[in-house]
Design goal:
The complex is a heterodimer of chains A (445) and B (523).
Chain A: H1 14-21, H2 36-43, E1 46-50, H3 54-65, E2 70-74, H4 99-110, E3 115-119, H5 128-131, E4 136-140, H6 144-156, E5 174-180, E6 183-189, H7 212-216, H8 222-237, H9 249-265, H10 273-281, H11 288-307, E7 316-320, E8 326-330, E9 346-350, H12 358-367, E10 377-382, E11 385-390, H13 395-401, E12 419-423, E13 431-437, H14 441-444
Parallel strand pairs in A: 1-2, 1-4, 2-3, 4-5, 9-13
Antiparallel strand pairs in A: 5-6, 6-7, 7-8, 10-11, 10-12, 12-13
Chain B: H1 14-18, H2 20-35, E1 38-42, H3 46-56, E2 62-66, H4 73-78, H5 91-100, E3 107-111, H6 115-121, E4 131-134, H7 139-152, E5 156-162, E6 165-171, E7 174-177, H8 196-204, H9 213-225, H10 236-248, H11 255-263, H12 275-281, H13 284-287, H14 295-310, H15 328-359, H16 369-378, E8 383-386, H17 390-396, H18 400-408, H19 414-430, H20 439-456, H21 465-474, H22 480-499, E9 508-512, E10 517-521
Parallel strand pairs in B: 1-2, 1-4, 2-3, 4-5
Antiparallel strand pairs in B: 5-6, 6-9, 7-8, 9-10
Helix pairs in contact in B: 3-22, 7-17, 9-10, 9-11, 14-15, 15-16, 19-20, 20-21
The chains are: A alpha/beta (445), B alpha/beta (523).
């Protein structure tokens, strides 16, 4: 048995030791080659991996072979048959089990000395006291909402002194990876120093939706027929007395058959069962190779930051291997008025406060590319009192505030320059927007 | 109740569900090719097993590992597919077992011999593989293997991972791609050259808010043309004139008019062979069909016949109509017009293909109507790759000009190529791995080898001290995440070669994990 105490000096780790114990011409200026780097990785450094899916499995493996031994992984999902083409820590017998638990168990068994701690839950189930403990956070997520929430959480951990300068020990770097088919990206975020997720929210295009009138009256594509059954026919007929579940084969068959009827009626061709599944579940195609590539870039960046052996990626890299192999990296810039990483309130221009209702404002916050909120709750200070304008998350408050939706901003007592606090599931923190009433042409004359 | 003839839901098979996320990309056709393919890996190290992982998971038919070595502590420290219990055992067998375990659909095999032994005693061993992947091989073996695989026409990928640097080089004599899946596929709608049924439809349609934007553009195009019936707006100024004309015809905010204006920039393109396609059409393989010709070349020849005989140089209509705001019946009508023209064109191409099969004394079912339909749909973007032999690259240096001009660029990754060539040569000349024991002494040696290589190639450029030092500091070690990057890339290149979809690299890719960048060179 090798002694755990001196494991960092073992022959097995010769690969990492060469990099960390020998000086090199391309190392970052602050790097001093020594045995202490690997010892730090093995004994002290604590990493959080968010997501144990396609990227997560690869990240755990890569980090374990880069010498990290205290790794936590968090994922609320269970294993599905369609994961097995790329999530290589899972087998058929694992279908239905927790991804985080299975992945941790596999790595702990394959790489002796590495301890992966699983968390089978939502990221939102934990608070600051959990996240504060990590040196670096790596995200392998397929959800923009979850990314934004983690981004907000890590930003909220930053500590500034009275003069506004950052307490370096409170900074937790975020390495974020994403893939879709043969495309992927990796980025390094130093919260409050480099661009955060929210600074470049426009990089994530909103999901494709079809206009309701097309779906209802002038369908042309098989997708339109599927959306019709999903949005309109299911509600109306409610065949199984429950909400539509894209994972239930009975539901899928029902939708497939109704959509096929509708397509036949309109002489639309090309409807397949696979397409029905794809539309209902918003399936993103995925292959093993792209996940391996993007996760490896993320893990390498974790290693660079943890050891300072090389300068880390500054700060955004794209990858595409449809035609040859193509990569590109650039520095994405911080937004000075970022909702998440600056303390400035974001102005919202209101054309006509007399006709714009609260409901209009909420729709704007959901649809605008800079906000992309899900179900925002709004609070404002009106005449010296904090007043909830609308909140859908709590049923009794929703009921009480529902009448406000149809009132105009003026009727609600809001004035030019008014600040509104907005809470949404996309962030653990409340953000502030500031209403700016546009000056009308008539008033300018 | 209303429709008794509903087809029952075609529940997808188990395999289909397992591979669903990738079949959405390369289709069932690609998956079938993958499941029939055999890949050989020469030498087990992290990059090699990561390549296999990336093709075993998606369901390659089978793989064979060739390696005569036994598992060491160092192997276990960076290879996920060699565990503590395999210490001292056959490396080929141990890796095969843990890789096979990833996917029970895949058959794993191994050979406990060195590649050098096989080349000597059983060189045709390699004939049965669709692709051979190798790493950690000596310079002389690279050359011998390259010669053998070139002769057998088996695609070969040579890859390596040293410290924070990794590369892959593809050797393929000829690779033909029908479905290249370009990101920026040009629309080919023939608005500027409508086929008769389209012309008739466009001319007889009333332009209202209910018709697809194509009808809108066509009507105002006619107006803009005046007496010159073949004129097409190409310049910015002309497009602006047409745009104004369309705007002037709007009464309210008709969506199809808005779409027509947006479409003006790209809707008069396509239909004619590109330069790349012309080269394929003029290729010797297209003009000299034999019994041994690939079906791809018979199809290309048939396409060429179609262009010369039937269509006055216009490509077969692809028959794909993008979605556009319109009433259902208007849109479906238009879609059917495109589809039926596509079918007509394809059937002419099919006839040419059948004629060629007949005159070559080949069976008529070698090329089906659906093969031809697919080929015609993709005709504008079919692709051909003719590679070079690694043996020639090593013995003659095929691209001194590329090397010289790349070295002039700041931060070029070409230096990494040279340092790795020097790394190979060092091993031939000195036996060991540079930097394994003496970084300083080996740095000087690497530098002098690199300079010697450059002068052999006629390139006058002093080699960098820093890179020579960097490669020696690695002492030949492999960093797992760097191997995982190139392993993932190579796995996809293997899939491209097997499925005959997407364009592979041509022919060398270099990755620097130091700067997270890549470059591709044709060597």
């Amino acid at each position: 048995m090798e002694s755990q105490q001196n494991d960092h000096l073992s022959k097995k780790w010769i690969h990492l030791r060469r990099i960390l114990e020998r000086p090199g011409p391309f190392c970052s200026p602050s790097f001093v080659a020594s045995e202490q780097h690997l010892e730090f990785l093995m004994k002290t450094c604590k990493i959080l991996v968010i997501g144990a899916g396609g990227l997560g499995c690869e990240l755990l493996k890569d980090l374990a072979y880069l010498g990290f031994r205290d790794i936590h992984v968090i994922d609320m999902d269970t294993i599905d048959l369609s994961n097995l083409n790329r999530q290589f820590l899972f087998r058929r017998k694992d279908i239905g089990s927790s991804k985080a638990q299975c992945a941790a168990e596999f790595i702990n068994k394959r790489v002796p000395g590495c301890v992966v701690t699983p968390h089978f839950c939502k990221i939102q189930d934990y608070d600051e006291s959990f996240y504060r403990d990590f040196h670096i956070v790596v995200c392998g997520l397929d959800s923009v909402v979850a990314r934004r929430w983690i981004n907000g959480m890590i930003l909220s951990l930053l500590v500034f002194d009275e003069e506004g300068s950052l307490d370096q020990s409170s900074l937790i770097p975020i390495i974020d990876g994403g893939t879709e088919g043969f495309r992927g990206n990796a980025r390094v975020i130093l919260p409050s120093i480099t661009a955060c997720i929210e600074c470049n929210l426009d990089l994530y295009p909103p999901q494709v939706t079809y206009p309701l009138c097309t779906i209802a009256t002038t369908p042309r594509l098989p997708e339109h027929c599927i959306e019709y059954v999903k949005i309109i026919q299911w509600e109306k007929e409610n065949p199984f007395g429950v909400a539509l579940d894209g994972d239930d084969p009975q539901h899928l068959s029902w939708v497939y058959e109704r959509a096929q009827d509708r397509a036949n009626h309109f002489r639309i061709t090309g409807l397949t069962y696979r397409l029905v599944q794809g539309v209902l579940k918003n399936i993103i195609p995925a292959v093993a190779s792209t996940n391996a590539v993007i996760a490896s870039v993320c893990a390498t960046e974790v290693f660079k930051i943890a050891t300072s052996c090389y300068e880390s990626l500054n700060n955004y890299m794209m990858f595409n291997d449809v035609d040859g192999i193509y990569t590109y990296h650039y520095e994405s810039e911080r937004k000075t008025d970022c909702l998440a990483c600056s303390n400035v309130s974001r102005p919202v221009i209101i054309d006509d406060p007399n006709s714009m209702t609260l409901e209009n404002l909420i729709t704007y916050l959901c649809e605008n590319a800079q906000f992309q909120m899900k179900n925002p709750g709004l609070t404002a200070n009106i005449n010296g009192k904090n007043k909830t304008l609308y909140m859908s998350a709590v049923p009794c408050i929703e009921e009480r505030t529902r009448p406000n939706l149809t009132l105009s901003l003026v009727e609600l007592g809001l004035v030019d320059g008014h600040e509104i606090m907005v809470a949404d599931q996309t962030s653990p923190n409340t953000i502030t927007i500031q209403l700016k009433f546009a000056i009308h042409d008539s008033e300018m004359e | 109740m209303s429709s008794p003839a509903i087809p029952k839901s075609p529940e997808l098979s188990d395999k289909n569900r397992k591979y669903d996320r990738q079949i959405r990309l390369w289709g069932e056709q690609g998956q079938t090719l993958l499941e029939a393919a055999q890949v050989c890996l020469i030498n087990v190290n992290a990059i090699g097993t990561e390549v296999l992982k990336g093709i075993v998971l998606p369901g390659i038919g089978g793989f064979t590992i060739v390696d005569a070595g036994i598992v060491t502590e160092e192997d276990i420290g960076c290879n996920f597919f060699l565990d503590q219990s395999s210490l001292g055992l056959s490396r080929a067998k141990a890796a095969m077992q843990l890789l096979q375990e990833l996917n029970p659909d895949v058959r794993g095999d191994y050979v406990d011999e060195s590649v050098e032994y096989l080349l000597q005693n059983n060189p045709d061993f390699f004939r049965t593989f669709n692709v051979v992947v190798a790493s950690s091989i000596k310079e002389t073996t690279i050359i011998a293997l390259s010669e053998k695989l070139w002769q057998l026409e088996v695609p070969f990928i040579f890859c390596r991972s040293v410290g924070f640097i990794a590369t892959a080089r593809i050797q393929v004599k000829e690779h033909c791609i029908v479905e290249s899946h370009p990101d920026d596929k040009l629309k080919d709608l023939r608005l500027h050259h409508p086929f008769p049924s389209l012309k008739e439809h466009l001319e007889s349609s009333d332009v209202t808010s209910k018709v697809p934007w194509l009808c809108v553009v066509y009507k105002f195009l006619q107006k803009w043309r005046g007496s010159d019936e073949s004129k097409v707006p190409t310049t910015h100024k002309e497009k602006l004139e047409l745009k104004k004309l369309i705007h002037s015809g709007m009464t309210k905010d008709e969506e199809n008019f808005e779409e027509a204006v947006v479409a003006l920039n790209s809707c008069f393109s396509g239909g004619r062979p590109t330069k790349e396609l012309l080269e394929i059409l003029e290729d010797r393989s297209c003009n000299n069909l034999t019994k041994e010709s690939k079906l791809f070349w018979i199809l290309v020849r048939s396409l060429n016949d179609f262009l010369n005989v039937d269509s006055d140089g216009w490509l077969p209509v692809p028959g794909v109509l993008p979605d556009m705001t319109a009433e259902t019946a208007h849109y479906i009508n238009l879609q059917n017009i495109y589809r039926s023209q596509a079918n007509q064109d394809a059937s002419l191409v099919y006839n040419h293909a059948q004629n060629h099969l007949r005159s070559l004394n080949l069976s008529s079912d070698l090329i089906t109507e659906s093969d031809v339909k697919l080929f015609c749909r993709e005709a504008a973007t079919i692709s051909l790759l003719r590679g070079t032999k690694i043996a020639d690259e090593y013995e003659k240096c095929l691209s001194p000009h590329t090397i010289a001009s790349e070295l002039e660029m700041p931060n070029s990754l070409m230096e990494y190529y040279i340092v790795l060539r020097a790394f190979d040569r060092f091993q031939s000349e000195h036996g060991g791995v540079p930097g394994e024991c003496h970084v300083e002494a080996d740095t000087a040696r690497i530098k002098s080898i690199a300079n010697r290589l450059l002068s052999d190639w006629g390139v006058t450029h002093p080699f960098s001290d820093e890179l020579a030092h960097e490669i020696c500091r690695y002492g030949g070690t492999e960093i797992h995440s760097v191997s995982a990057f190139m392993g993932g890339c190579v796995a996809h290149e293997v899939i491209k070669l097997i499925t005959q979809q997407y364009k592979p690299i041509n022919n060398t890719v270099i990755y620097s994990a130091i700067t997270s960048s890549t470059a591709t060179y044709r060597m």
